[in-house]
Sequence to fold (115 residues):
Amino acid sequence: QVQLVESGGGLVQPGGSLRLSCANSGSTAGLNSIAWYRQAPGKQREMVARVGIYGTTNYADSVKGRFTISRDAATNTVYLQMSSLKPADTAVYYCNLANVRGSYWGQGTQVTVSS
Fold:
């Protein structure tokens, strides 16, 4: 059973940094990838960053060079380090785990970038 819990969101000024965490309390058997998505009001959910089981990462063009995804296999936690934040990064951020059985989502954490 996969259960994802995100944390670390909040209010930050433009140019600031935040680190999001996604803790998985369930199994990682058959894991394919873990990703961060975000959804801003009135917009579709979009992939922000993904890490595969062998550590390969990919990022949305809009966050390349500013966001870094990492995975701690020992604690079953995935992080999203966000820096040089912009108001356009304001959204609810969701953690997604994809394995051989399906796709699982966390409840989301709000990130607001505003002065």
